[in-house]
Write a structure and sequence with these properties.
InterPro entries: Acyl_CoA_acyltransferase (IPR016181), GNAT_dom (IPR000182), Ribosomal_N-acetyltransferase (IPR051908)
Number of strands: 8
Strand content: 25-35%
Number of domains: 1
CATH superfamily: Gcn5-related N-acetyltransferase (GNAT)
CATH architecture: 3-Layer(aba) Sandwich
Domain N-acetyltransferase: 12-172
Number of helices: 5
Pfam families: Acetyltransf_3
GO cellular component, one term: cytoplasm
Oligomer: single chain
CATH class: Alpha Beta
Keywords: Transferase
Shape: globular
Length: 172
């Protein structure tokens, strides 16, 4: 399954992660900014392979729809995911590689994925998407707002995975 994104500047595509993406995945996870924001950054080949396997398993079980955000050369610039919860809800997550930030890639990818997730009723019926980020992650807050997510609540810190307070934005 691939999803084409609108083409304002750079053509982008969302496609499932592939084993060939391992070097780009590890390179992205070496970025200190990304490592600080992720609950479980990847540190080595074995860990990255397990992560790629988990993405494929999520697709097979219709519990996690994970996409690499790629440009024309098919190299990953980022990641977007819908993690299916219960009662028609899911959580949207994403990251952008350091070299691709500041170009609107995250907003375009999150908006496209959100529309897709709410429209694809044949795989799983979703009525609400949550986007959660740390309170001090202002770029993620801007992405959420640009993509039509409304601030729903302030979440308390929950160390060690979530050491700071967070925002839950909702789109339905």
């Amino acid at each position: 399954m691939t999803i084409a994104l609108p083409v304002p500047a750079t053509a982008l595509l969302l496609r499932p992660w592939q084993s060939d993406d391992l070097p780009a995945l590890l390179a992205a996870h070496r970025d200190p900014v990304l490592r600080r924001r992720l609950a479980a950054p990847l540190t080595g080949d074995a860990e990255a392979r397990r992560w790629l396997d988990a993405q494929a398993t999520g697709w097979a079980r219709a519990t996690r729809f994970s996409f690499a955000v790629v440009a024309d050369d098919r190299s990953p610039l980022g990641h977007v995911v819908v993690k299916v919860g219960s009662g028609g809800t899911a959580e949207v997550g994403y990251w952008t590689a350091a070299h691709a930030r500041g170009r609107g890639i995250a907003s375009r990818a999150v908006d496209t994925l959100s529309q897709w997730a709410l429209d694809v009723q044949d795989m799983v019926a979703l009525t609400r998407l949550d986007l959660i980020h740390a309170v001090d992650n202002h770029p993620s807050c801007r992405v959420a707002v640009r993509c039509g997510y409304v601030l729903h609540e302030l979440l308390p810190a929950s160390p060690p995975a979530f050491p700071t307070e967070g925002h839950r934005h909702v789109r339905g």
